[in-house]
């Protein structure tokens, strides 16, 4: 048995010294020191030894165990040192090299214009309200005084999902939803994406953004609408900006108007941006039609209101002097980095 222990010791030491990975050390440990290892098998065979031989053999087994554990630990430390040195050599950092510059993103010009616009109206006490892009025909058309056979539907030809569900053509649908709730007075703007069957060109897109405004209460007049839009134009385009209302027709407002502002580039003198007129159209507006109020459950004899709709891309193009709407969606970094 002493000879067998010597052979086990020599074999184990040779394997330990020749191992080249921590995994192999673990295998050696299990082979010789594990529950079913060679040393353990010798201990199990001690029951067949005489009482005088057992202590001697047991001592030698413990000596071999201690030796192998020491050898395993030393080899493991040696391997770890070698691995660490290799890793440090591999991951050496040259601090004299120039640093890497990481590109940082920023807000899109549309988002910048929207946040500036929202700040103006929030400052006037408006609440920002959003609604679904996939809308019922009832809210998108019917409650806005545009019945099934109305010619205005042709102007807003859109994408229908079913007969009664479509991609909204205007965020006025949010106004109809808010009025239907009957929580008066109302003072909101409703920004969001809308969809129309338009050809893509420098000023049109099948998907764009609107910011609609609505005020409903007692004693609301056209003068309130004019004052609101004056304040918006001065805050958004500059303090010298003037507004002009031109009569127009919209099914959901009466009377209705389109709004022009003095050209921000020539200040009303006339230039290529405003085509020599000194004015630029920016939005449509009007007093909420009494029938619209009535359909939404509001008494037009008691309450009145005004509404307006701003094309976000349009005011962004004007404010930042961009001549083609498609630039906003092409994700050209050379363009976006200017904002």
Q: What do these coordinates show?
A:
There is one protein chain. With about 350 residues, the protein is α+β, with helices and mostly antiparallel strands. Strands 1-4-5-9-8-7-6 form a 7-stranded mixed sheet, sandwiched between helices. The chain has a two-stranded antiparallel ribbon with strand order 2-3. It is elongated, with a radius of gyration of 41 Å. The mean pLDDT is about 85.
List keywords for this structure.
BirA Bifunctional Protein, domain 2, Phenylalanyl-tRNA_Synthase, alpha+beta, 42% helix, 339 residues, two-stranded antiparallel ribbon, transferase activity, single chain, 7-stranded mixed beta sheet
Give a topology summary.
Elements: H1 2-18, H2 22-33, H3 38-44, H4 53-90, H5 109-123, E1 127-128, E2 134-136, H6 137-140, H7 152-155, E3 165-167, H8 172-181, E4 186-195, E5 207-217, H9 222-237, E6 243-250, E7 253-262, E8 279-288, H10 290-295, E9 304-311, H11 312-319, H12 333-336
Parallel strand pairs: 1-4
Antiparallel strand pairs: 2-3, 4-5, 5-9, 6-7, 7-8, 8-9
């Amino acid at each position: 048995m002493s000879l067998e222990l010597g052979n086990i010791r020599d074999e184990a030491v040779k394997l330990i010294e020749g191992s080249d990975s921590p995994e192999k050390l673990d295998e050696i440990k299990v082979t010789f020191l594990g529950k079913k290892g060679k040393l353990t098998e010798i201990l199990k065979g001690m029951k067949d030894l005489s009482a005088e031989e057992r202590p001697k053999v047991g001592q030698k087994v413990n000596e071999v165990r201690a030796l192998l554990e020491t050898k395993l630990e030393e080899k493991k430390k040696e391997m770890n040192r070698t691995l660490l040195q290799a890793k440090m050599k591999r991951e050496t950092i040259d601090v004299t090299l120039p640093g890497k510059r990481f590109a940082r993103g920023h807000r899109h010009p549309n988002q910048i214009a929207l946040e500036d616009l929202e700040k103006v109206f929030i400052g006037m006490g408006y609440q920002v309200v959003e609604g679904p892009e996939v809308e019922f025909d009832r809210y998108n058309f019917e409650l806005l005084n545009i019945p099934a056979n109305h010619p205005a539907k042709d102007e807003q030809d859109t994408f229908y999902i079913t007969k009664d569900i479509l991609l909204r053509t205007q965020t006025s649908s949010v106004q109809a939803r808010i009025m239907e709730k009957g929580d008066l007075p109302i003072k909101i703007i409703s920004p969001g994406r809308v969809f129309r069957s338009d050809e893509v060109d420098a000023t049109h897109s099948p998907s764009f953004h609107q910011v609609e405004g609505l005020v409903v209460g007692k004693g609301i007049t056209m003068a309130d609408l004019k004052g609101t839009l004056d304040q918006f134009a001065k805050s958004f385009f500059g303090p010298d900006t003037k507004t002009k209302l031109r009569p127009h027709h919209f099914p959901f407002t009466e009377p209705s108007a389109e709004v022009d502002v003095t050209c921000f580039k020539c200040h009303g003198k006339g230039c290529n941006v405003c085509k020599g007129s000194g004015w630029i159209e920016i939005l449509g507006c009007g007093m909420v039609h009494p029938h619209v109020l009535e359909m939404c459950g509001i008494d037009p004899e008691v309450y009145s209101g005004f509404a307006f709709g701003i094309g976000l891309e349009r005011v962004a193009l004007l404010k930042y002097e961009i001549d083609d709407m498609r630039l906003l969606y092409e994700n050209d970094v050379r363009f976006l980095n200017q904002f």
